[in-house]
Specification:
Number of strands: 2
Oligomer: single chain
Structural class: mainly alpha
Largest sheet: 2 strands, antiparallel
C-alpha cells in the first residue's frame, strides 16, 4: 500500500486474477526452462511464493491424475529443479522436521 501525498489517502495495489491457462503457461515456461523464476515473477508482477504455489499445485494435480502405480521413467530428462520438486512432492516424509 502507498499513501498519496497530495490527498493523504491510501492507494491499494490492484490485485490481478490469473486464469488457469495463464497459470499453466507460466508453470510450463518455468519447467521447460524458457523463463527463469525471477524473469517470470517480474513479467507477471507476482511474488515468488505465488509462482511457487502454482508450481506445487500443478505438480500435485498431475500426480493425482496419474495412476497410483505410476513409476517415474528411468531417463526422464527433466530439469534438475523439477526433479527436486517432484521428489519433495512424492516423498513429503523425506523433508526435515521443523523444530
Amino acid at each position: 500500500m502507498k499513501t498519496d501525498e497530495a490527498t493523504g489517502t491510501v492507494r491499494r495495489r490492484r490485485t490481478r486474477m490469473f486464469t488457469a491457462k495463464e497459470k499453466s503457461q507460466a508453470v510450463l515456461s518455468l519447467w521447460s526452462g524458457r523463463r527463469s523464476p525471477s524473469a517470470l515473477t517480474k513479467a507477471l508482477d507476482v511474488p515468488w511464493v505465488v509462482l511457487n504455489d502454482w508450481e506445487k499445485r500443478a505438480l500435485s494435480g498431475m500426480l493425482t491424475a496419474l495412476d497410483p502405480n505410476w513409476q517415474k521413467p528411468a531417463q526422464a530428462g527433466l530439469p534438475p529443479r523439477l526433479e527436486r520438486l517432484m521428489q519433495k512432492t512424492l516423498e513429503p516424509s523425506a523433508a526435515p522436521a521443523a523444530t
